[in-house]
């Protein structure tokens, strides 16, 4: 279990400005992650297009993204 956080960083910022999200994506690319838990869907990214691209990346790597607030599988 690992925790990736962007404390005090807005979800409206791009990937380059979100070190926690960048680290999560890097870890996802090398494998070993099968599930990502997010507080709410909008905490992943505020921009709908960016959010969908992130979800596609996770899905393409066989990673489920689960929303803690309701237990929904976002992928």
Write structural notes for this entry.
The chain has helices at 19-30, 41-44, 48-60; strands spanning 35-38, 64-67. By secondary structure, the protein is of the alpha+beta class. The protein has a two-stranded parallel ribbon. The two termini are 20 Å apart.
Please give the number of β-strands.
2
Question: How would you spell out the order of helices and strands?
Answer: HEHHE
Major sheet: order of its strands? 1-2
Distance between the termini: 20 Å
Described by strand count, sense and barrel closure, the largest sheet is: 2 strands, parallel
Number of helices in the DSSP assignment: 3
Instruction: Outline the low-pLDDT stretches.
Output: none
| Global Rg | 11 Å
Share of helix, binned: 25-40%
Mean pLDDT: 87
Report the β-strand fraction as a percent range: 5-15%
Q: Structural class, from helix and strand content?
A: alpha+beta
Instruction: Indicate the overall shape.
Output: globular
Features:
75 residues; alpha+beta; two-stranded parallel ribbon
Could you write a compact summary of the structure shown?
The protein is of the alpha+beta class. It has helices spanning 19-30, 41-44, 48-60; strands at residues 35-38, 64-67.
What are the SSEs and their pairings?
Blueprint: H1 19-30, E1 35-38, H2 41-44, H3 48-60, E2 64-67
Parallel strand pairs: 1-2
């Amino acid at each position: 279990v690992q925790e990736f956080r962007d404390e005090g960083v807005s979800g409206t910022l791009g990937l380059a400005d979100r070190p926690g999200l960048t680290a999560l994506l890097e870890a996802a690319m090398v494998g070993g992650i099968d599930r990502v838990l997010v507080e709410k869907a909008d905490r992943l990214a505020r921009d709908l297009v960016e959010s969908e691209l992130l979800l596609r990346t996770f899905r393409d790597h066989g990673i489920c993204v689960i929303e803690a607030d309701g237990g929904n599988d976002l992928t």
